[in-house]
Amino acid sequence: MSNSAQVWLPLVGGFTAGMGLGLIYFFGLWMTTRGIAQSRNAGLLMISSLALRLGIVLTGFYYLMTWTGWQGMVTALFGFALVRLILTRLLGPVSKENSKQT
Q1: How many alpha carbons lie under 13 Å from residue 16 in its C-beta half-sphere?
Q2: What phi and psi values does residue 39 have, to the nearest 5 degrees?
């Protein structure tokens, strides 16, 4: 492997993995908030969803840190935050007209 590949591979891999972890976390959060109204025990749903999402993301970040070091971790956090921005724009807040129909 060339020297430039040794520098760029952990950065690109970290960014991609951060985006994947962000998708898991924020899509899970979105699904949880959509399911609260139909849930018989909303508190249990929220706590168990939080524990599952945090467990997956923190484990992913831990293994990512061991593979890429702090540089890859920084790029992973950028990827994680970017997914939040993208999903917020795509899914957006529910308008009052849409919430009455569902």
Answers
A1: 7
A2: -80, 140
**Do the Cβ atoms of 12 and 55 come closer than 8 Å?**
no
Say how many C-beta atoms besides its own lie within 10 A of residue 49's C-beta: 17
Closest residue by Cα to residue 10 from 81, 63, 53, 59: 63
Q: Give, in order, the Cα–Cα distances in Å from 16 to each of 10, 55, 60.
A: 10, 19, 12
Can you give the pTM of this predicted structure? 0.82
Q: From start to end of 9-96, where are the E strands? A: none
pLDDT digits 0-9 by tens, 22-45: 999 999 999 999 998 898 999 999
